[in-house]
User: Fold Potassium-transporting ATPase subunit F from Neptunitalea lumnitzerae.
Amino acid sequence: MMTIVYILLILITVIAFLGFIAPKNYNVHRSIIVKTAREDVFEFLKYLKNQDLWSPWNKKDPAMKKTYKGTDGTVGFISAWEGNKEVGAGEQEILMIVEGELVASKLRFFRPWKSQSDAYLRVEEVTEGTKIIWGFAGKNKFPFSIFMLFMNMDKAVGRDFEEGLSNLKAILENKPEH
Assistant:
């Protein structure tokens, strides 16, 4: 009987220790420079429906079901998805738009696990054109935080961000000027 108590105490201690040392936050972002005017880049980016054209997750589930609420390109607009096990289910809501600079949104994942992240698309004028920064950040809640000891969120999602930005660059640089 005491052996079981000792094993449980050791197990609880190990889990508590792992929870203590596990990363509490994540912040993943990537950037790319496009040879397109900042105003045109921002005008394209502020519409969440345009993400369907460049998002790497659309390729992972071309049959993904999409629904929308509100007016795209404005605060409060929600783009929701329901897809296969690779893309899961969730929604993205525009929380703030700083015209010509920033689109901030909340990502709510429902499946394969529940979580929330703060996402953003930021644009900056640079000598070569326009720099686009795409990122998201959030908190790792216990016990999920323990898994982050064995998974690198930056590497896991970073590759998708790089692919998406590359797709975005191709679209923006080949888009006819108005």
